[in-house]
Design goal:
single chain, alpha+beta, four-stranded antiparallel beta sheet
Length: about 200
């Protein structure tokens, strides 16, 4: 009898997982083209016409997303940064790479810039300096000038076709890659409103 009960429980769990996966796929918006590899046609071949305007996502953005759960935090406790407070100094570290977790606390949107020094050192090839990260609330509609400082792949993924940009889920909680030599983090409001960004 116990064996039958266990089998029934496993069947129920299997159905629950299948339903959960189906719901997730149905409710999760597709990733923007820039989040994938080069564009392809319906037959799976690379679309040469679309390839002319396709841009790969910035390496720093990709590394930030993949490394966020595992990379060392920038600060032990969150530090709130505002435009009025000026730049937040980021001290050097022994670690080659750290992840700054950036979260919009107050305001509709902000541009966060990590200022770091470019280098010709072979060990530092591939570093992106400076890095620009845009933070905004889900469904916030931005004008062209408000999103002007954002990276082109970010803008393309959120363009609504009328010269405006619509912020997506989790756009208010993103990451930036911080390099060994440190630097500084600056916050600029997208609109004439006070914004606060938590950095950790």
């Amino acid at each position: 009898m116990k064996v039958v009960i266990i089998i029934l429980i496993l069947i129920v769990i299997g159905f629950a997982v299948a339903i959960g996966v189906a719901v997730y796929r149905a409710t999760t918006p597709p990733a923007p083209p820039s989040a994938h590899g080069p564009p392809t046609s319906s037959d799976g071949k690379i679309d040469e016409d679309a390839l002319a305007t396709w841009e790969p996502p910035p390496m720093a953005a990709v590394m930030g997303r993949l490394s966020r759960p595992f990379a060392p935090k920038l600060f032990k406790k969150p530090v709130v940064v505002t435009e009025q407070a000026g730049e937040l100094p980021v001290p050097p570290a022994d670690k080659g790479m750290r992840i700054a977790r950036l979260r919009l606390v107050t305001g509709p949107g902000a541009v966060v810039t990590y200022r770091c020094e470019e280098s010709d050192d072979e060990d530092r090839q591939g570093e992106t300096c400076p890095q620009v990260v845009c933070l905004c609330r889900e469904n916030t509609v931005l004008d062209e000038d408000e999103a002007e400082a954002c990276e082109e792949p970010w803008r393309k993924a959120r363009a609504s076709g009328d010269g405006k940009f619509v912020c997506r889920p989790k756009d208010d909680d993103v990451s930036a890659v911080i390099y060994r030599d440190g630097g500084a983090i600056a916050v600029t409001p997208m609109r004439e409103e006070i914004v606060e960004v938590s950095v950790r």
